[in-house]
Design brief:
The chain is mostly helical. It folds into four domains: about 50 residues; about 200 residues, Lysozyme (Orthogonal Bundle); about 70 residues, Roll (Membrane-bound Lytic Murein Transglycosylase D, Chain A), CATH 3.10.350; about 45 residues, Membrane-bound Lytic Murein Transglycosylase D, Chain A, CATH 3.10.350. The chain is built from 15 helices and eight strands. The strands form four sheets. It has a two-stranded antiparallel ribbon with strand order 1-2. A two-stranded antiparallel sheet has the order 3-4. α4 crosses α7 and α8 crosses α10. The chain starts with a helix and ends with a strand.
């Protein structure tokens, strides 16, 4: 049905050309009528489902100047599979091109600076869909889907609140440097890209075990085998959009976000939240996060220097507000420090008072205990010997006879007995 409509449009266009030369109102009216019919048929054609089988890969497919051996049935099949899968998701292809206007220039500049193959930008399409802050289930992040360790290895700052794997430019420099290192090791762009996906050591082990140095001959796990042909298929489509029924070019994509940049360095302890900054600049939290996909928390990072992106024309306002905020934070910090010193002094004085009171209480308790011990001393007793009397015993111990009688409950009539024990001093 689609081919029939195309044939009809071509017939009408031929009729249009046939009547375009005669002069007069009748010819002009006929031309207008044919143009209306062509426009109507084109609209109807656009509404019909796309039959992707009408499209084919080009006869010659290259990547980084190297031809893909499409004459090999196995390679041809693998390439066609990825080509049709990508082509079948037409909305995704459009989104890639919409984002490409914003992202590709940054990647292309990095490629040129490092003298790398321009086709490598399509690897970022497959890795992230050109979304700068996307994070995988394996915690890989950014346009180039770096793991944290590999990102740090290639100079990216990855820490709490700030993650340069989401920085368009820095991540692209790192991703391309990594690919260049892989190409130097494997001496092949397909192998370099495969190593990017599998990890270079895993790829090297597979090559050694299988005795192969050609990516297309390697037996790898499914994702690794699909990875390289997918990148090449994406390059084939995005490089020739018109050939596959897409009426979009890079200039139709989403423009880079208008922004200004300023260098910021917040000392440790100078907390500045992103919502606070947004309120000061009359910019939404969402807008600031779009401008700064590196931000991963709710506050600007402390103790490090970084480049903050703000809405166009807001650089000076942001700088003044941040300086004012830093001064305010320092004043608050100073007040907190002074209050802490006063509180510590008060606590020390309280502890000293409490210690002194405790010492006094302990001393009083000790005295009381000592008195109690003195009051509870056992009475002193004397064993009566022959010839002793109460008077002689009283004289010996310096007490009164009456005391001896009282302590021992003796009357005047009681007579002392030899061996009798008398209390001669009370405890």
């Amino acid at each position: 049905m689609r081919s029939g409509l195309c044939l009809l449009i071509m017939t009408l266009l031929g009729a249009h050309q046939a009547v375009a030369s005669p002069e007069g109102g009748e010819a002009a009216g006929r031309i207008a009528e044919l143009e209306t019919q062509v426009a109507l048929l084109e609209a109807q054609l656009a509404l019909r489902p796309l039959d992707i089988s009408a499209y084919e890969l080009p006869q010659e497919v290259t990547f980084c100047g190297q031809r893909v051996n499409m004459a090999d049935p196995s390679i041809h099949e693998r390439m066609e599979k990825e080509f049709y899968i990508a082509l079948g998701d037409r909305a995704q292809v459009v989104l890639w091109m919409k984002r490409a206007r914003r992202v590709f220039p940054v990647i292309e500049e990095a490629l040129e600076r490092q003298g790398a193959c321009p086709d490598l930008k399509y690897l970022a399409v497959v890795e992230s869909g050109l979304r700068p802050a996307v994070t995988s289930r394996a915690a890989a992040r950014g346009l180039w889907q770096f793991l944290a360790g590999t990102g740090r290895q290639y100079g990216l700052q990855v820490d709490k609140g700030w993650d340069e794997r989401a920085d368009y430019s820095k991540a692209s420099e790192a991703g391309i440097a990594y690919l260049m290192a892989l190409h130097k090791r494997f001496e092949s762009w397909p192998l370099a890209m495969a190593g990017y996906n599998t990890g270079p050591n895993r790829l090297a082990r597979a090559m050694a075990a299988q005795g192969q140095t050609d990516f297309w001959a390697l037996d790898l796990y499914t994702e690794a085998e699909r990875y390289v042909p997918r990148i090449i298929a994406v390059k084939s489509i995005l490089s020739n959009l018109g050939d596959y029924g897409f009426h979009i070019t890079r200039k139709d994509g989403w423009a880079p976000l208008a922004r200004d940049e300023l260098e910021v360095s917040l000392p440790e302890g100078d907390a500045v939240t992103i919502p606070e900054l947004g309120l000061a600049l009359k910019a939404s939290l969402r807008a600031l996060r779009l401008l700064n996909p590196e931000l991963t928390g709710d506050a600007l990072p402390q103790g490090r220097r970084f480049t903050l992106k703000v809405p166009k024309g807001q650089r000076e306002a942001a700088r003044r507000w941040l300086e004012k905020q830093i001064l305010a934070n320092r004043a608050k910090a100073k007040a907190r420090a002074e209050a802490k010193v006063l509180a510590e002094r008060a606590a020390a004085a309280r502890r000293a008072r409490e210690a002194k009171a405790a010492q006094a209480q302990a001393a009083a308790k000790k005295r009381s205990t000592s008195k109690k011990r003195v009051g509870k001393r056992a009475p002193i007793k004397h064993k009566v010997r022959a010839g002793e009397s109460l008077w002689s015993i009283a004289q010996r111990y310096g007490v009164e006879v009456a005391q001896l009688r009282s302590w021992n409950k003796l009357s005047r009539e009681d007579v002392l007995r030899v061996g009798q024990r008398l209390i001669v001093r009370r405890g």
